[in-house]
Each structure stands twice: as C-alpha cells, then as structure tokens.
Amino acid sequence: MKMPTLSKALTSFERVFGRLQGAIIGVVHLPALPGTPKSAKTLQEIVDAAYKEATVYFKHGLDGVIVENSNDLPYLKSPHIGPETTAYATRVCTEIRRLFPRQPLGVQVLAGGNLEALAVAHAANLDFIRVEGFVFSSIADEGFIDASAAALLRKRRSLGADDILVFADVKKKHSSHSITHDLTVQDAAEAAEFCLADGVIVTGMATGKAADPQEASTTQKVVQLPVLVGSGVTKGNLHAFIDCANGLIVGSDFKHDGLWSNELDEKRVQAFMKTVEELRKTPK
User: Fold this and answer.
1) DSSP strand E in the chain: where?
2) Which whole-number Å values give the CA distances from 86 to 83, 119, 150, 235, in the listed order?
3) Side-chain half-sphere CA neighbours of 167 within 13 A
4) Which of 34, 146, 170, 262 is close enough to 255 for a disulfide, judged by CB 3.0 to 4.6 Å?
C-alpha cells in the first residue's frame, strides 16, 4: 500500500524537530528586558538565565525551545517595539544558538513583533518563529492586531531566509475575535495555509489555559500543515494532546506551581518528559 505523500510544510517540520507528531517545545520566558517596566536584570544576567532554562530543557529530551520576551509587560505593539528589543533578543538567541548549535530553536517577539522575530531568527540562525496576526484581525490586550502575512513573507524572501519556518497563531489567546466571529478555527487555519504559513497554532483563551483537543484534531484534518497547541498543555492533560497535534508548546507547566512567571522547576520538566516517553511507547 502506497503511503500518502507529506506536504512540504509537514516534511519541513519533521526535518527540524525529528518527529512528525507530538514534538515538545519548551518556552524560555525571558526576564524583563532592559528599559521595560519590570526590568531588574542586566542583559548578561538575562542571557545566563535563558541559557540555564534551555540547558534544562535539552537535558531532559525536549524536541525544541522557543524564546519569548514574555515579561516585557505591558507589551508594546509592532511597529512601536523599540530597536533595543530586537537587539537584546538577538543577543540572547545568538548565545543560546552558539551553545546549542544543532537543536531546534525559535523565537517570538511580543506583541505582534513578527518582522522583529524574523530579524532575530535570521541573525541568530534559528529554525522557526511564532507569529501573531498572520491572517485576519483581532483585538488584543495591546489593541488592534492586523494581518501581517504579506509583509512578513516578502521580508523573509528578501532576506533569503525561507528556511525559517513561520508558525502562525489562529484565533489566538488574549484576544477578542468578534470581528471574525463567523469564522471557525479551521477557517482561520485554512486561510493561514492559503497565505503560506508553515504551521498553525491553536490555543486556549489565555496563557496556561488549555486549548480544545478536538479543535486541534479537527484542524489537522483540514490543513496540510503542522498543527501545534500553544497553551495549557500539562502533565495531567498531555494524553489528550500528544496524538492530536504535531507540536506542543509548553511553558507554564514547567514552572513552579504551574505559573508561567515563576522560576523553572526542573523536577516538573523531568516528570513531564517521563510521561511523554510513556505515552510515546503506548501502542496506538
């Protein structure tokens, strides 16, 4: 029996992460960057903290890591993100890439800093970016977020950076979607595929809030793209997600008390990955 041919996007995902289903991507939540309201660390201290978290993740067998400026609250919205944010994120990511030259690494720049994330990824030789507002529009904490696919992919082409995968949030967390209330998650995913995303991300309503496993599973059936779950995956609900998504982006559950803003808890990372190993061995 002839096996179905994988799409280019799915083939690229498998090439980067080494597996096609249930890849675990850990989030490095950077301490507040210099100049932001919560800033309390030097840039070198931030680099050291990020390296420490990435080291723990790869030590315990995660399939990839994504770096985010999650503590830069309240977030500036692109195009008002300062050049220093891009510069600081590039410094951090370059250091992590230097120490982990072969592992899958990505970046997200909040809020809606998609061009900034692309610049960081290109400069630091990263593998992927997570972007908000790729297709359609929404109202986020920061205000109106508009579609960015056309400008982003033209910039990627002009930089010669087509090998950097773009994973796009659809109906993303921390947002009101009344503008597109007549569209389902699957409709948005199909639009992202039409606009040449390399993968789509489904989420719950907020960071740490679980997505709907059925939404992920259904989305996998309607697009030929990797489908990632971008919030609320825990050791307790992992069994519901690992077989219905190509990738799982996990941050909060790895922190003390399961709160994203707390310090990384290595024991929680270890326990989570032990459960991953057990589920991967379970006959389907």
Assistant:
1) 23-29, 64-68, 105-108, 128-131, 138-140, 143-145, 165-169, 175-176, 199-202, 227-229, 247-250
2) 5, 8, 21, 33
3) 28
4) 262
Q: Indicate the average pLDDT of the chain.
A: 93
pTM greater than 0.90 (yes/no):
yes
Distances (CA, A) of 275 to 57, 228, 268, 269: 15, 19, 11, 10
Q: Which two tokens stand for residue 164?
A: 């950097």
Rounded distance, CA 81 to CA 220, Å? 33
Which residue shows structure tokens 């061995």? Answer: 281
For residue range 21-63, list pLDDT tens digits in order: 999 999 999 999 999 999 999 999 999 999 999 999 999 999 9
Residues 160, 249, 121: CA angle, nearest 5 degrees: 20
* Confidence tier at 181 by pLDDT (50, 70, 90): confident
Q: What DSSP state is assigned to residue 102?
A: S
Token pair 């904490």 is found at: 141
Interior angle at CA 105, CA 88 and CA 158, nearest 5: 75
What is the per-residue pLDDT for 1? 46
Which distant-in-sequence residues (6+ apart) come within 8 Å of 163 by Cβ?
A: 127
What secondary structure letter does DSSP report for 9?
A: H
Contact residues for 100 (Cβ-Cβ < 8 A; gap 6+): 54, 58, 65
**Edge-to-edge strand order for the sheet containing 138-140?**
143-145, 138-140, 175-176
User: How far is it, in rounded angstroms, from Cα 279 to Cα 211?
Assistant: 19
Does the pLDDT at position 6 exceed 80? yes
Give the model confidence (pLDDT) of 56-78 as tens digits. Answer: 999 999 999 999 999 999 999 98
In the block, which residue shows the tokens 């699957």? 186
How far is Cα 226 from Cα 21, in angstroms, rounded to an integer? 9
